[in-house]
Structures are given as structure tokens and as C-alpha cells.
Amino acid sequence: xxxxxxxxxxxxxxxxxxxxxxxxxxxxxxxxxxxxxxxxxxxxxxxxxxxxxxxxxxxxxxxxxxxxxxxxxxxxx
Length: 77
Prior knowledge:
The chain is 18% helix and 21% strand. It has one domain: Alpha-Beta Plaits, CATH 3.30.70. Strand 1 (7-11) and strand 2 (15-20) form a beta hairpin. It has a three-stranded antiparallel β-sheet with strand order 1-2-3, covered by helices on one side. The termini are far apart. It is globular and about 30 Å long. By secondary structure, it is of the alpha+beta class.
């Protein structure tokens, strides 16, 4: 696997966030819209328990590259 194309998943039990590093264009929308969750200088950089699922999903909808996506763990998207 290309180290520049990592895929990681983070879940809070309700929603699962998928991050694909190879698609990321570093627009910063995630950090500006939800800095409690998206902390690129930290490891892991996504602190999914730091915000509501609704705010996380709203933030992900603003990701221009598609590097961030999510699914609801109850099967609905």
C-alpha cells in the first residue's frame, strides 16, 4: 500500500468517519468548521468523541476533496 494513500476509520458508535489521505487537498475546511474534532497536529488527528454526530456529518459535507466521508452505523447514510 502506498504510504500516501492511507485509509482510516473513526467511530463514536453512531457514525463512522472515513479518512482517505490520498484524496486530501488540505483545504482546512474540517479544521475551521470543527476544530474540536479535526486536529491535524495530533495523533490520532480525528477526535470523534469531541463533537456531536450531526456537527461531524455537517463538517464532512464541506470537504471539497472527498477525503472525508462517513456512514451511520445503523445502516443509513
